[in-house]
Amino acid sequence: MMPRRHQATARLFIAGALWLCASQAHAEAQYQLEKVVELSRHGIRPPTPGNRKDIEAATHRAWTTWTTHDGELTGHGYAAVANKGRWEGEHYRELGLLTAGCPQPQDIYVRASPLQRTRATAQALVDGAFPGCGVSVHRVEGEDDPLFQTEAFPATNTDPAKQLAAVKAKAGDLAARQQALQPAVQALKHAVCSPDADCSYFDKPWQIKQSKSGKASIDGLSVLANMVETLRLGWNENLPLSQLAWGNVTSSAQITAVLPLLTANYDLGNDVMYTAQKRGSILLNTMLQGVEQGISGTTDKLPDTRWLLLVAHDTNIAMVRTLMNFTWTLPVYTRGNIPPGSSLVFERWRDTKSGERFLHVYFQGQSLDDLRRLQTVDKEHPLLREEWRQSDCRITELGTLCPMKTSLKALGRNLDRASITPVTYQ
User: Fold this and answer.
1) Mean pLDDT across the stretch 113-136?
2) Adjacent-strand bridge partners of 358
3) Axis-axis angle for helices 221-236, 252-267 (nearest 10)
4) Which pLDDT tens digit goes with each residue over 203-253?
5) What was the pLDDT predicted at 297?
6) Other C-beta atoms within 10 Å of 240: how many?
7) d(CA 113, CA 388)
8) Of 90, 80, 97, whose CA–CA distance to 346 is shortest?
9) Is 170 left (phi over 0), alpha (psi -120 to 50) or beta?
10) How far apart are CA 116 and CA 113, in angstroms?
11) CA angle, corner 185, sides to 242 and 211, nearest 5?
């Protein structure tokens, strides 16, 4: 028989669990989920061809060739994203946003960046959320979508002189930044450099470099960041340890240790406000209009849908979050990291008693090890999450709910209206 003190503890646990369930049920009865707008990063991929060329030149050795073509979504990546999509479908059915079975046309609209890894990610998400339903994934013809590949369009491209000035201002003392990041640099060097190879690239001074197209980047740092991303993705892919940094990386903690280089590259790349305003305003504006749909007269061109799912790239999420003044630090990651398959979510809730509407804004993703082992997303293994908030938000059992009117104003404060051009939908 269970000891009395254990019986009392068990009763308290059960009572607490029942109270939490009752509290959430009460919260869900008071608040109704009306709309979701989600911006997702693609899933796990090998290095892109250009990145592979750069990292191999810097280390003077060939990096692992994956079973998937460079830059394309892997089978493991598909499974991880489908896993997340399954949980989202179940979650939104529980919250009453979606009904059982296959979706109706007004339930979901999916638009993906034209690249294979984003289109395949979008397919994995809807296959997980709506298995066997054949939900359409929409895309533009050609390689450039004005929502995502904004560098390809004059109205949303940056002025070279202004971008260079903005990056210089953000970078400050580059030598000091490089020195502060030496622990991560040396950890990366130890992992990927052969003892008998020329590893001088790791010691070269970082400098701001501008391409012929006007894009400014940090010469020295950007290639190191690509190495880190390649190692992270290889860990997520569950590559054999012998194929991951030649057996020198054996734990996710070693990946975490070098992620500061990726954060630094974000800081001086897509997280620069001028760059984000020119290239991210059209996407954030679409998301804000989407979350208003049905209660204002400004969103008629958007598909009339309860769940607007946009699938793109980490660069897109980085620019949008910069405009929002929102960053996060998920457990086991560094500040602002955007794992494969992670997403930025806007939810619109209505208080059924007062009629007032609120936004629940958050970033979510899986851990390094959960992606590697294809951990099922459930209540015992939830997605990592961090919420956006401001002073007038309220804490509820559903999360942080922020008054819609003031939230829209705050989230759209940094939009560059001149860069917002019309977007067509199928």
Assistant:
1) 97
2) 349, 403
3) 140
4) 999 999 998 888 899 999 999 999 999 999 999 999 999 999 999 999 999
5) 62
6) 9
7) 25
8) 97
9) alpha
10) 8
11) 105
Calpha distance 236→239 (Å, rounded) = 8
With a cut of 80, say whether residue 152 has pLDDT above it.
yes
CA–centroid distance for 278 within its chain: 20
- Whether the Cβ atoms of residue 361 and residue 402 lie closer than 8 Å to each other: yes
The tokens of 93 are what?
A: 């059915």
Report how far apart the first and last C-alpha atoms of the chain are (Å, whole number): 65
Q: 21: phi > 0 → left, psi -120 to 50 → alpha, else beta; which?
A: alpha
Taking every pair of Cα atoms in the chain, the longest distance, rounded to a whole number of angstroms, is 77
**Do residues 230 and 96 lie in contact, with contact meaning Cβ atoms separated by under 8 Å?**
no
The b/e string for 22-54 (b: 16+ C-beta within 10 A; e otherwise) is: eeeeeebebbebbbbbbbbbbbbbbbbeebbeb
| Cβ–Cβ under 8 Å, residues 38 and 361 | no
- Cα separation, 56 vs 144, in Å, equals 28
Contact between residue 143 and residue 97 where contact means Cβ atoms under 8 Å apart: no
On the 0-12 / 13-18 / 19+ scale of CB atoms within 10 A, 157 is middle
φ, ψ for residue 166 (rounded to 5)?
-65, -40
Q: What is d(CA 347, CA 387) in angstroms, rounded to the nearest whole number?
A: 11
Q: Answer yes or no: pTM beyond 0.90.
A: yes
Q: In angstroms, rounded to a whole number, what is the distance separating the alpha carbons of residues 279 and 323? A: 10
Whole-angstrom distance, CA of residue 88 vs CA of residue 383: 10
Q: Tell me: the pLDDT tens digits for 12-70?
A: 444 444 434 444 554 668 999 999 999 999 999 999 999 999 999 999 999 999 999 99
* 269 CB-near residues (< 8 Å, 6+ apart): 217, 218, 222, 275, 315, 318
- How many Cα atoms are found within 13 Å in the side-chain-facing hemisphere of 210? 13
DSSP string, 47-84: PPHHHHHHHHHHHTSPPPPPSSPTTS--HHHHHHHHHH
Contact 160, 210 (CB under 8 A): yes
